[in-house]
């Protein structure tokens, strides 16, 4: 039961080209935005789509897969956990960011851009 305490599973489309960074420590990190859509009918019976954007961060081997196979527009599945962090901007404002830290990526439906 403890494995589902902080568990996220998303399927969506990559919004922009992932950025991959090789850190001085030798670790690799990939960042991408993922759009998920929820379709529903409003009170008038008209079809609507609600799009949510998620920031995804991946490390190590998962970052390698993203670097090699994931491009803008690609449909992917992600499993991972939510992580919130805080930082202070240059002008002294405190910011909070919630990200999905991916531990697995599933490549779906090929890449529509290729």
Task: Describe the protein's architecture and organization.
This protein has 114 residues and is mainly β. The protein has a single domain (2-108), classed as Nucleic acid-binding proteins (OB fold (Dihydrolipoamide Acetyltransferase, E2P), Beta Barrel), CATH 2.40.50.140. The protein is built from 1 helix and 6 strands, in the order ββββαββ.
Q: What is the gist of this entry?
A:
This protein is mainly β and 114 residues long. The chain has one helix and six strands.
Main features:
single chain; 114 residues; mainly beta; OB fold (Dihydrolipoamide Acetyltransferase, E2P); 5-stranded mixed β-barrel; globular
Topology:
Layout: E1 8-14, E2 19-22, E3 28-41, E4 47-59, H1 60-69, E5 75-88, E6 94-108
Parallel strand pairs: 4-6
Antiparallel strand pairs: 1-3, 1-5, 2-3, 3-4, 5-6
Q: Strands of the largest sheet, in order across it? A: 1-3-4-6-5
On the 0 to 100 scale, the average pLDDT is 93
> What percent of residues adopt helix (DSSP H or I)?
under 10%
CATH superfamily: Nucleic acid-binding proteins
Largest sheet: 5 strands, mixed, barrel
Cα gyration radius (Å): 16 Å
The global form is: globular
* Total domain modules: 1
């Amino acid at each position: 039961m403890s494995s589902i305490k902080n568990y996220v599973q998303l399927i969506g489309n990559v919004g922009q080209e992932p950025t991959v960074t090789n850190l001085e420590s030798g670790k690799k990190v990939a960042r991408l935005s993922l759009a998920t859509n929820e379709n529903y009918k409003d009170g008038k019976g008209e079809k609507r789509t609600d799009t949510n954007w998620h920031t995804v961060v991946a490390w190590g081997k998962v970052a390698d897969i993203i670097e090699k196979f994931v491009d803008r527009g690609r449909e992917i599945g992600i499993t991972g956990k939510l992580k919130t962090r805080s930082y202070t901007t240059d002008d002294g404002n405190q910011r909070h960011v919630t990200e999905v830290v991916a531990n697995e990526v599933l490549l779906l439906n090929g890449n529509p851009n290729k």
